[in-house]
Amino acid sequence: MSDNVKVAVRVRPFNNREKEKNSVCIISMHEKTTTIRNPESNEEKSFAFDYSYWSHNPSDPNFATQAIVFNDLGIGVLENAWKGYNVSLFAYGQTGSGKSYSMVGYGVDKGIIPCACQELFRRISENPDSTVTFKGPYVDGLALLPVKDLAYIEQLMDEGTRARTVASTQMNATSSRAHTIFTIILTQTTTNMTTMKVMDKVSKINLVDLAGSERAASTGATGDRLKEGAAINKSLSALGNVISALADASEKKGKQVFVPYRDSILTWLLKESLGGNSRTIMIAALSPADINYEETLSTLRPNQKLIRELQEEVERLRKLA
Ligand code: ADP
Ligand code: MG
Description:
The model is unreliable at 165-175 (pLDDT under 50). The strands form three sheets. Strands 1, 5, 6, 9, 10, 11, 12, 13 and 14 form a nine-stranded mixed β-sheet that branches. By secondary structure, this protein is an alpha/beta fold. Strand 2 (27-30) and strand 3 form a beta hairpin. Helix 2 crosses helix 4 and helix 7 runs parallel beside helix 10 (293-320). It has ten helices and 14 strands. Adenosine-5'-diphosphate binds next to helix 3.
């Protein structure tokens, strides 16, 4: 598959609600292929991804730990950022499917964001090349704050988590009804020791925990929660529209196509990270349970479309370069 866009899927253990309902696991994985079974008709559908992570039962020899996921996806993000690419990593899926577990983690099971920050500062402190220096400002909303160490990033993340609106729905008591975008700007400053000329290589790393993708009907949300759900679906579909406009542009080779980046704050923030000099990774988070069949199928499907469109765009840009 393309180097520029990669899609991963990860299936989590049953939660208490699924256990209480005596749920059956309808997901299976074989190498890079993920298969979902319709619990009523037993019909199976298979999808190929760059990575399929089996995190359903720890006793399985193929069980994917946080460290395994970080070593593939998190290290890949850092390596591309070091080369000067803008990199975005999105977690996508219904509320309770494991997006925040992969991106942020819980307790000692640290996710990609804290592990990537730790590794980033380790690499900076062990940088053997004295002609290169680094700084890594952190973007929080409209504030741009320079950070020197891991402890300060952790403090900012805690403040960010506390400030987020967390509302309870029937799906999950800790469901987050907002997109969380964690951005690091990595600047590598190289000094040419002969000419003493200074050159900056700047890359933007976006680590995005998207709000739940579930349709309003399945959440039982009403009033303000329902309005919030509509806004979330709007920004997810704005993301889809940006990606299909980029794909359109690739079909109409060279002709100007309007890309609706300004349709949502999400796509506006990610503008320079989706076209051009960028790398994108999607992680689709899946519930294993039969009771979530419809939502899980819709999580698997758009990604097939998303990856195809992103790949086409990337191919177009490669030809233009
Ligand atoms: P989301 O962010 O998609 O709403 P969470 O990441 O909060 O979902 O996950 C919901 C629950 O499932 C949490 O209690 C989390 O600890 C658990 N969970 C999710 N993924 C895994 C996993 N791979 N291994 C163990 N527990 C997980
Ligand atoms: Mg979450």
